[in-house]
Design brief:
With about 170 residues, the chain is of the alpha+beta class. The chain contains 4 helices and 5 strands. The C terminus is likely disordered.
């Protein structure tokens, strides 16, 4: 259990004390996707979803999700996030909305959970806005792809690349 920093010596959950750590620029990028029927993807492309502009709403939802991460993930520290960016790619071959989120902070702990929560929230919003026409959608492959900053340095998921301009 010594490698699990969120557990104390008795195995009980705790919030890690980061007060002695120095502040650094930290950036994390996560990706995920929503698989759907081709006709659902076409509705998103054409603006034909009755609830409105799916990607615009998912964009705002993703930013909001990143900002609320510590409210929904019990042991996350509340962070003064300095930026959140989301991008969406409509992949016609896979019939999917590909989502990427990057979160930034100058702080004592990383923003991986914020980037992951941004992707998950955006994906859930796509599902919510399109569920009336496609209940078979699947949210999958939510994963951390890149992070920089802090003691552990840079991480790049094997087989993935960081977005341009993401270096700390």
């Amino acid at each position: 259990m010594s490698d699990l920093t969120h557990l104390d010596e008795r195995g009980r959950a705790r919030m890690v004390d980061v007060s002695a750590k120095g502040e650094t620029v930290r950036i994390a990028t996560a990706r995920g996707r929503v698989l759907m029927r081709p006709e659902t993807l076409r509705l998103i492309q054409s603006g034909g979803v009755k609830k409105g502009d799916v990607l615009a709403i998912a964009q705002v939802a993703g930013v909001m999700g990143a900002k609320k991460t510590s409210d929904i993930i019990p042991l996350c520290h509340p962070l003064p996030i300095t930026g959140v960016d989301l991008t969406f790619d409509l992949d016609e071959d896979a019939s999917a909305v590909e989502i990427e989120a990057s979160a930034r902070v100058v702080g004592k702990t990383g923003v991986e959970m914020e980037a992951l929560t941004a992707v998950a929230t955006a994906a859930l919003t796509v599902y919510d806005m399109c569920k009336a026409v496609d209940k078979d959608m699947v949210i999958d492959q939510i994963r951390l792809v890149h992070k920089v900053g802090g003691k552990s340095g840079e991480y790049i998921r094997q087989g993935e690349s960081a977005r341009a301009g993401e270096e700390a």
